[in-house]
Amino acid sequence: IKLLKKLEKQRMQELAAKEQPEKEEEQKEDKGRHYTLSVALPGSILNNAQSLELRTYLAGQIARACAIFCVDEIIVFDEHGEDAKSVEGEFSGIGKKGKACVQLARILQYLECPQYLRKSFFPKHEDLQFAGLLNPLDSPHHMRVDEDSQYREGVVLDRPTKPGRGSFVNCGMRKEVRIDKQLDPGLRVTVRLEEPQNPDSKVRQGTVVSSHHPRTASGLYWGYSVRLASCLSAVFSECPFKEGYDLSIGTSERGCSVDQASLPSFRHALVVFGGLQGLEAGVDADPNLEVTDPSVLFDFYLNTCPSQGSRTIRTEEALLISLSSLRPHIEEAVKTPRDSQGKEKP
Ligand SMILES: C[S@@+](CC[C@H](N)C(=O)[O-])C[C@H]1O[C@@H](n2cnc3c(N)ncnc32)[C@H](O)[C@@H]1O
């Protein structure tokens, strides 16, 4: 019996040793990105542009900068804090100043939406009068009709189907896609296309997945969401991630040099920009904030362009400069291995 037990133990040890490389292989194959990057900026920056054409172009620059650096969430906040007394419920700061926030948010959303879905989600609106002329984001979820892809964005069609037989979705392909779930028409969905496909079938088969699935499962950049915040404090208090932002960075020419920064590992990072008067304006106008110095709101307060040659760097320029200079620091910070749930590994 002793010998049998010893042999069994030996066998278990051998099996465990064999399993180890497989587990390591699995880890290597995890191509997902398990962190997010959010950017917040005041809608008032549109007020510095003189015409609707220039306002639109400025919004396009913000959208392109965020797509280039794989930003997952853009928060447009009202730095005048018009609606600051109530941070709950729907955004209602659509006064003269609030209009810039809504207009910026609308153009950002329009550009994020794949071209073939825009008709379904964006009825004619004066804010979008020149948006069709803007440079496209050209991000991985903006598919061309014959492009092959594991995932696609789509809209659920108003087409009757038998109960239990799912719904039809327009994913911008020649064939429609039948998804596994019955969903309300008009809903925007992310679909994983099933392989192998049957070339003789009139429809393709797909499964509905969450919009962050392409990022977490395959590391694909899948566009950004847009959120309105009625004041600077609401950027933090209305965070959509239940754990909140675990790394916050304020940007200012009065911050510490980005060159010396060493960022800790994080799951949800937030980078905040000010408008014409800097982040101070947002802090002063927000009755929820008792501080006067914006630097105390953030884990890091960084000057991302030390020795700048122009007296002021505009917010749209600061966005490109900051995301570019933060990129290596972010890459370094997220090197810490994490499991599929994003938890740090011991
Ligand atoms: C026009 S600037 C604001 C200038 C304003 N006079 C001030 O003193 O902050 C707009 C925004 O761009 C960003 N910015 C400008 N220069 C920066 C720098 N050197 N480093 C980091 N961010 C900067 C900040 O977010 C700033 O609030």
From TrEMBL:
Keywords: Cytoplasm, Methyltransferase, Transferase. It holds the Pfam family Methyltrn_RNA_3. Residues 13-33 are annotated as: Disordered. One of its GO terms (cellular component) is cytoplasm. GO terms for molecular function: methyltransferase activity; miRNA binding. It catalyses: uridine in 28S rRNA + S-adenosyl-L-methionine = N(3)-methyluridine in 28S rRNA + S-adenosyl-L-homocysteine + H(+). One of its GO terms (biological process) is maintenance of centrosome location. It is found in: Cytoplasm. Belongs to the class IV-like SAM-binding methyltransferase superfamily. Interacts with INCA1. S-adenosyl-L-methionine-dependent methyltransferase that specifically methylates the N3 position of a uridine in 28S rRNA. Required for association of the centrosomes with the poles of the bipolar mitotic spindle during metaphase. Also involved in chromosome alignment. May promote centrosome maturation probably by recruiting A-kinase anchor protein AKAP9 to centrosomes in early mitosis. Binds specifically to miRNA MIR145 hairpin, regulates MIR145 expression at a postranscriptional level. This is 28S rRNA (uridine-N(3))-methyltransferase. The gene is SPOUT1.
